[in-house]
Predict the structure.
Amino acid sequence: MNITRDSRVSDVATEAPATIRIFQEHGIDFCCGGKRPIADACVEQGLDVDQLVTRLQAATLTADGERNWQMAPLGELVAHIQERFHEPLREELPRLTAMMAKVVSRHGDHLPDTLQPLQATLAALRDELVEHMAKEDEVLFPAIVAAEAGQAASSSWISQPIATMEAEHDHAGQALDRMRELTAGYTPPEWACPTFRGLYFGLAELERDMHLHVHLENNILFPRAASMVEAG
């Protein structure tokens, strides 16, 4: 892949998954906010665009064992998203919620402007994600798998749920941005106890996985599914 300063971040991440780690390292959004040139993202982050492009190109040359989800059957991609992201999220969200409650009970009075809004944001995100994943697993994903198997699905029908899922992804991204802002990039206070530190680490991991999760859906699964239905 020829990567230039004008290449869109989301396109690079889609065609060369090995570059995702580099985007994450520099805090560059490659999913919901990735439909912009690399140069613009570098300006926002204060990065040298030529150096970043060189690193991205190198990553494409050294990548090995990366699954090309652009070419894989959609049924396999759906199964991967469910196994890699949906199932772990259903276990992780209650764990983080419990840790958050413990931290707030012990330290909420010390950091009321941080921990209480953080708890409310996580609770809202948790509820939204649980409902969101249920709609995907029970309605949209089965429809995509069925369409790939040759069962008819109209483009007008599938476009609406995809648009809804993408809008919900945007809303989840806003919640993640809010949590990062509240925690100063998930940096715990020096006096933080192990549970406090573990909570911030878990929230940072949640953000990282959510970016990968949304990237696979917004930039690969949904466009491929829509194109397949339209072509059929």
Notes: Residues 177 and 207 are 9 Å apart (CA to CA). Residues 9-62 form one domain. The first helix runs from residue 9 to 15.
